[in-house]
Amino acid sequence: MQSLAIFPLFYLPPVSYFSAVQQFDYEIMVERYEHFPKQTYRNRARIYSPNGILDLIVPVIKGANVHTKMKDVRISYDFNWQRIHWMSLQTCYRSSAYFEYYEDELAPFYHKKFNYLFDYNLELLQWLLQQLKKKPMLSFTEEYTEVENGLVDYRTKIHFKKEDLSQSFSQYYQVFEDRRGFLPNLSIVDLLFNQGPQAKNYI
Question: Can you tell me the distance from the alpha carbon of 129 to that of 141, in angstroms, rounded to the nearest whole number?
Answer without folding.
Answer: 20
